């Protein structure tokens, strides 16, 4: 495809939406047709995201009704949802209903948690409220792109940033039968993972030069990691997840530890994981432990592994706003529209963020 595909973004003033807009601005096939903000309709996009002013000097936030007109008018639309959990499902349902009434068939990639679960009850059990559009759940598939060659449904739910990092490290261990028993996962995330609205956990004086755990063994992303492992491997793995808040803005560093099934050295594990991801353009398996600055502000993930013959530790780093959210969503949308998977996503990491 060489044509430009009209593209709309929901949840327009958040960090992930800003990252989506940045990626769309440089994409060879997606052309922004509208970005929605319930809180700032009619306001300048450049005022909300000053770094995007060169790309969108005149763009203004649109209303839900404006986006419904776009998806009903255009033969095909790429819909990215960066709306909050609990709100995204109903917003997406309204857009799809408008498109379907006009005989249109857009594709959606949702970055919220609203379509990550296979049932409304599964979603409600984790998030504590009813699903906003349960009839749409069957139209969505949730997976990391590297673990599913093609979506069997017209729409995709992208796993969360913590889940993406953890799954990239965990799935090969189980699928290659390298480990046995529980997976112990420790992850550190940057402050942008908590969203744009200032709260105690992301306030700079609180977070600067500090490191602390939260939601240990009870975080809502743990069920998503378990579900992702099961979907990719067919095995219900036991997972113990301990997330941490780090004193940096962008990135996630995850360490997965498990007992080996049999003696295997570090070089053999790295070789096995490198072969596992041989066809994955955005996953690099390093001989040395990866660093956040290897991948920050890019759609690349980097992995490394160390073995002492009994226990295995796998490291996974990625940018939470990019590979863990907006970039992974663009990667999926490329596939849904039969574009090259790498289209618009090959810029290397910034290096000194």
Write structural notes for this entry.
There is one protein chain. This protein is α/β, with parallel strands linked by helices. The chain folds into 2 domains: 5-142, Rossmann fold (3-Layer(aba) Sandwich), CATH 3.40.50; 162-319, Dihydrodipicolinate Reductase, domain 2 (2-Layer Sandwich), CATH 3.30.360. It has helices at residues 15-25, 45-48, 64-73, 88-101, 120-127, 161-175, 204-207, 221-233, 266-276, 322-336; strands spanning 5-10, 30-35, 78-81, 107-110, 140-142, 155-157, 179-189, 212-213, 239-245, 252-260, 283-285, 301-307, 311-318. The strands form 2 sheets. The chain has a 7-stranded mixed β-sheet with strand order 8-9-7-10-13-12-11. A 6-stranded parallel β-sheet has the order 2-1-3-4-6-5, with helices on both faces. A hairpin with a 3-residue loop joins β12 and β13 (311-318). α3 packs parallel to α4 (88-101). It is globular and about 60 Å long. The model has no long low-confidence stretch (mean pLDDT 95).
Q: What is the topology, as strand order, of the major beta sheet?
A: 8-9-7-10-13-12-11
Structure annotation, total helices: 10
Count of discrete structural domains: 2
CATH superfamily of the largest domain: Dihydrodipicolinate Reductase, domain 2
Class from helix and strand fractions:
alpha/beta
Q: Please report the distance between the alpha carbons of the first and last residues.
A: 34 Å
* CATH fold descriptor of the largest domain: Dihydrodipicolinate Reductase, domain 2
- Give the overall pLDDT as a whole number: 95
Any idea what the radius of gyration is?
A: 20 Å
* H/E element sequence: EHEHHEHEHEEHEHEHEEHEEEH
């Amino acid at each position: 495809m060489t044509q430009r595909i009209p593209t709309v973004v929901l949840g327009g003033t958040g960090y992930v939406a800003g990252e989506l807009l940045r990626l769309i601005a440089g994409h060879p096939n997606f052309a922004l047709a509208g970005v929605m903000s319930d809180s700032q309709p009619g306001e300048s996009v450049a005022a909300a995201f000053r770094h995007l002013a060169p790309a969108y000097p005149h763009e203004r936030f649109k209303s839900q009704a404006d986006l419904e007109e776009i998806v009903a008018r255009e033969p095909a639309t790429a819909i990215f949802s960066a709306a909050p959990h609990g709100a995204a499902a109903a917003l997406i349902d309204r857009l799809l209903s408008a498109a379907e009434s006009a005989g249109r068939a857009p594709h959606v990639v949702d970055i919220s948690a609203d379509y990550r679960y296979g049932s409304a009850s599964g979603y409600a059990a984790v998030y504590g409220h009813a699903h906003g559009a349960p009839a749409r759940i069957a139209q969505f598939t949730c997976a990391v792109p590297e673990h599913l060659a093609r979506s069997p449904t017209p729409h995709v739910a992208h796993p969360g940033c913590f889940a993406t990092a953890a799954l990239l490290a965990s799935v090969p261990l189980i699928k290659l039968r390298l480990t046995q028993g529980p997976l112990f996962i420790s992850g550190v995330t940057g402050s942008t993972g908590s969203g744009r609205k200032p709260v105690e956990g992301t306030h700079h004086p609180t977070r600067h030069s500090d490191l602390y755990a939260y939601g240990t063994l009870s975080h809502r992303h743990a069920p998503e990691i378990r579900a992702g492992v099961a979907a990719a491997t067919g095995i219900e793995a036991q997972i113990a997840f301990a997330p941490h808040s780090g004193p940096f803005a962008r990135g996630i560093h995850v360490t997965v530890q498990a007992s080996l099934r049999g003696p295997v050295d570090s070089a053999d594990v790295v070789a096995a994981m490198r072969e596992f991801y041989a066809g994955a353009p955005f996953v690099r398996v390093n001989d040395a432990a990866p660093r956040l600055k290897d991948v920050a502000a890019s759609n690349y993930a980097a992995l490394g592994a160390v073995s002492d013959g009994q226990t295995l530790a796998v490291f996974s780093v990625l940018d939470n706003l990019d590979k863990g959210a907006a970039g992974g969503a663009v990667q999926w949308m490329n596939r849904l529209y039969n574009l090259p998977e790498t289209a618009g996503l090959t810029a290397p990491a910034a290096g000194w963020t």
